[in-house]
Design brief:
Blueprint lengths: L14 E7 L2 E7 L9 E4 L3 H4 L8 H7 L7 H13 L6 H16 L2 E2 L12 H15 L10 E6 L4 H13 L8 E7 L8 E3 L3 E4 L2 E3 L3 H11 L1 H5 L9 H4 L2 H7 L4 E7 L3 H6 L7 H19 L4 E6 L4 E2 L11 H19 L3 H10 L9 H13 L5 E12 L4 E11 L1
Parallel strand pairs: 4-8, 5-11, 6-10, 6-11
Antiparallel strand pairs: 1-2, 2-3, 5-14, 7-10, 8-9, 12-14, 13-14
Helix pairs in contact: 5-6, 7-12, 12-15, 13-14, 14-15
Length: 411
């Protein structure tokens, strides 16, 4: 019988990063869906041993593999014990914890704010002051777009780096009234499925954003209940939608939301086939367009909000070359081409642009934006756009850069 304590295996999903702490490299393990509440830090020297925790090698075989380095069985057992206690190992302890978290989330009518107190203030007064400060910066904008706002492209980077861009972007939402927001963002955690729904209201320290459950139910009945909600747990910790909610609650107090997460287009890019050639994509977007069209015909004022970032470059994201000013100039040149596909409402050009270099810049918002453009094409809503701001958050010391933008789509 297989013994997970004799054949140790790291569980999934798991974020593993090498970081610097007090001048030393360390391995940091984090749980992206919050089953493990605390990160775990190990010396970087244990990285090769940790890479053997795949469930294929026994403790004895792992020790033998590193015998020349005098790796002891006691050290391996200590690693197993610590990983298990922190719920980072595929063991019965983790299985029980995961089932409990999934069931608790499933039973809760509300998606609680995961970042309150960490990514932004948990107290209403503090968060309101922060959001209002960012929104106030938008009042200095010189542009005055004309027309009905049908879509908004907002960042999902943290407020420390992107708060001003959020404020500028949502400033332009204040002049418009909508009944319903299709809130669509990036699912950063891997799933075999492409789209992820939830019928939960989204709580914020500023109040609750109600979910339009009838819209979700109508959409899920077309796409299929099982695949709509199979990985609903991804919503629990996902920041791409949550970081929109304080701004949305502040500028549109009574509107409802339709929360949607979009996964990776990796297999579309690998096959060099458009997403519409895949049933899991086509059936979802066709269903989404049908339900949205019905609501519009019933008089609903609808707006699509995409929580998306663009390029992720630097050694922190796997690049071999160091960051430089010249590299970031080239990133901006390519980003502007990508943005042009949004402003021209051209999803085919967007797909071709990403496929051209196999998504070398790691544009995590690409599947979301492709879906948004396709949805508006099908409604049909033809828009003109206004780029409010393009920004690069660059940390040369950490070898990390993320780019993002705020864009309005006007009918």
């Amino acid at each position: 019988m297989y013994d997970p304590y004799q054949y140790p295996k790291l569980r999934w999903p798991l974020d593993v990063r090498v970081e610097k702490a007090e001048g030393q490299e360390v391995i940091v393990l984090n749980c992206p869906i919050g089953i493990s509440s605390q990160p775990m830090i190990l010396p970087a020297a244990l990285g090769p041993v940790l890479s053997c925790f795949e469930g294929k090698l026994s403790v004895t075989e792992i020790v033998d593999k590193f015998r020349e380095y005098q790796l002891s069985p006691d050290l391996v057992q200590q690693m197993i014990t610590l990983l298990d206690e922190h719920l980072y190992l595929a063991t019965p302890r983790f299985d029980v914890a995961q089932k409990t978290v999934i069931e608790d989330f499933r039973q809760s009518p509300v998606r609680a704010p995961a970042l309150a107190g960490r990514g932004y203030p948990a107290q209403p007064d503090g968060l309101r002051a922060l959001v209002d400060g960012f929104l106030a910066s938008g009042q200095r904008a010189l542009i005055q777009p004309q027309g009905k706002l049908v879509g908004l492209v907002s960042p999902h980077i943290d407020y420390r780096r992107g708060g001003a861009c959020y404020g500028l972007t949502y400033h332009f939402l204040k002049a418009h009234t909508h009944d319903l927001y299709i809130l669509i963002g990036t699912a950063h955690q891997y799933s075999r499925r492409l789209f992820h729904l939830t019928a939960k209201d989204f709580a914020t320290p500023l109040g609750v954003l109600p979910c339009d459950t009838r819209f979700i139910q109508d959409l899920a009945s077309r796409y299929g209940l099982e695949r709509s909600f199979a990985d609903e747990l991804l919503h629990r910790r996902e920041h791409s939608l949550e970081l929109q909610t304080p701004f949305l609650k502040r500028v549109s107090e009574k509107a409802s939301i339709v929360p949607i997460l979009v996964g990776s287009f990796h297999k579309m890019l690998s096959a060099q086939r458009l997403p519409s050639e895949f049933d899991e994509y086509e059936s979802f977007v066709a269903g989404l367009a049908e339900v949205a069209r019905q609501r519009i015909e019933q008089g609903a004022r609808l707006c699509v909000i995409a929580g998306v970032d663009m390029a992720h470059v630097g050694r922190q994201f796997g690049d071999k070359e160091p960051l430089s000013a010249e590299r970031m100039q080239e990133v901006e040149r390519r980003d502007r081409i990508y943005l042009q596909s949004i402003t021209q409402q051209d999803k085919r050009a967007m797909f071709a642009h990403i496929a051209e270099d196999e998504d070398q810049r790691r544009i995590c918002g690409f599947p979301t934006m492709y879906t948004v453009i396709d949805l508006l094409d099908r409604l049909p809503i033809h828009y003109r756009s206004e780029i409010f701001e393009y920004k690069q958050a660059v940390d040369y010391s950490a070898e990390c850069a993320v780019t993002f933008a705020g864009v309005g789509l006007y009918q």
